[in-house]
Design a protein that fits this description.
- This protein is an all-beta fold.
- Helix content is 0%, strand content 35%.
- The chain has a domain of 325 residues: Methylamine Dehydrogenase, Chain H, CATH 2.130.10.10.
- It contains no helices and 29 strands.
- 55% of the residues are buried.
Length: 465
């Protein structure tokens, strides 16, 4: 594949953050440890890691990688971003303050430098309960932003009336609406499927209006390191992660993961030192060193073969991986990078979201194993108890449906999900499972609900901590 990057610096709508020039380290990402043609196998619940390579020495970004990348030996090799990428200063910013002072409990977690303290080591979602809306965003418009993949637009829903109050055009193939680390911008990831004109559209959450798009190569999804230092643009078509300035989106460095075909979703460890990404078209997970910007290794899941969303457990060490072909959720110990269990849910397991109290996980089952599924599939939502890893409730979509990606309302009373192949958004009552359907655009995908409680965002449709 031929990679294309564009130089740019853009001013975000309504952004008034001071810029501080900082020295940045350029890290050379590791090559995968084992060829994709001979992946590690898992005959039991605990699958093996194909590589755990040390972080390579820092280098300066050089020429673009070749168009054909083949996983090599266990020795790390150098892969660097194109020389045409702009060099951006790293901006250190302070996350918005919570509504009340929070004191860390005993057993403080040693996080990466610059990452906000972990308040409760037993529950990384302790600062996302309903009454902890940051003062910086409390006056933002209450809205649900729905990206319409085939409509090249965003539908804006007023959650008070369950009606679409605005629709605006964005770039080609909008996939997700992603809250920035500092909570001041909502980014629409337009990955331009089958084309090379990808972009990010910023939305000002105070007004609900879009700003000028930023040209970015293949932004299928986007995350932010927990220290706020980098935006990680998931370039799915290239099996690549682009580390960018979180404000200007200028390219800083890249990590190649050629064995991770269909790299798309991620979540982070409690201390922020690593992230685990799902590889949709290979049945793998990829573990990434977020400090050194390098590939640690791969894990082959034991069955299924189409991992989708991933969510960190409240303890910050266990990870849940939704697999659309396995019809359930894999459980993986992130530190050892081993598979430890599996929870059956429903057909086409897809998105995962914690409840506001951090006790349950809502799992969207899309109702089909197909990438482009039919309307009125047997879609449902499974509710998993974090304490027991058991399904305690299942809510079918009345008349069938295709629940995909979304998030939970600030008060925790509604689970909002896109109806991917039914051109609707679902508002699901988290007490009763009752469903409201709101017509939106063509093929809605990763919607977000705003505002949300929390101190900072690590990306996707609003993973706040």
């Amino acid at each position: 594949m031929k990679f294309s990057h564009h130089a740019f610096i853009v001013s975000l709508v309504g952004l008034s953050l001071a810029t501080a020039q900082a020295t940045r380290a350029q890290e050379t990402p590791a090559a995968p440890a084992q060829a994709a043609s001979a992946p590690a196998t898992a005959s039991s619940a605990a699958s093996g890691v194909t590589s755990q390579a040390p972080a390579p020495a820092a280098t300066t970004p050089a020429a673009a990688p070749s168009s054909s990348v083949t996983p090599a030996s266990t020795t790390p090799s150098s892969t660097t971003p194109p020389s045409t990428a702009p060099v951006a200063p790293v901006v250190q910013v302070t996350p918005p303050a919570a509504t009340s002072a929070a004191t860390p409990v005993a057993g403080a977690v040693q996080t990466i430098p610059g990452m906000p303290a972990v308040i409760n080591p037993k529950n990384i979602y302790s600062e996302t309960i309903s009454d902890k809306i940051s003062p910086a965003i409390k006056d933002d418009l209450a809205r649900v932003y729905v990206p319409n993949l085939r409509g090249n637009s965003v539908s804006v829903i007023d959650p008070a009336t369950f009606k679409v109050v605005d629709t605006f055009k964005v770039g080609r193939s909008p996939q997700h609406v992603v809250p920035s680390w500092d909570l001041r911008t909502l980014w629409v990831t337009n990955n331009a499927e089958g084309s090379n004109d990808g972009s990010l559209t910023p939305i000002d959450p105070r007004t609900g209006k879009p700003g000028p798009a930023v040209t970015v190569d293949d932004p299928y999804n986007m995350y932010f390191t927990p220290d706020g230092k980098y935006a990680i643009v998931v370039a799915e078509a290239h099996e690549r992660l682009d580390f960018r300035d979180p404000h200007t989106m200028a390219l800083i460095g890249s990590v190649e993961a050629p064995q991770c075909m269909g790299i798309n979703h991620a979540d982070f460890s409690i201390d922020g030192r690593y992230a685990i990404f799902t590889c949709e078209f290979g049945g793998y997970l990829a573990k990434i060193d977020t400090v050194n910007r390098s590939l640690i290794g791969y894990l082959k899941l034991s069955k299924g073969g189409m991992p989708q969303d991933i969510l960190t457990a409240p303890d910050g060490h266990k990870f849940y991986i939704a697999d659309m072909h396995a019809d359930g959720v894999f459980v993986v110990d992130g530190d050892s990078f081993k598979e430890t269990g599996f929870i059956p849910t429903g057909p086409g397991t897809h998105g995962e979201y914690p409840s506001r109290d951090g006790k349950f996980m809502y799992v969207a089952n899309r109702g089909s194993h197909r990438i482009h599924g039919p309307r009125h599939s047997p879609g449902s939502v499974s509710v998993i108890d974090f304490a027991t890893d058991k399904v305690v409730k299942t809510w079918p979509i009345p008349g069938g449906g295709s629940p995909d990606m979304g998030n939970v309302s600030a008060d925790g009373k509604l689970l909002w999900l896109s109806g991917r192949f039914d051109d609707v958004a679902y508002a699901i009552n988290t007490e009763t499972g009752d469903v409201k359907k709101i017509p939106v655009g063509a093929e809605p995908h990763g919607l977000t609900v705003w505002p949300q409680p929390g101190r900072y965002s690590v990306g996707h449709t609003g993973i706040l901590r």
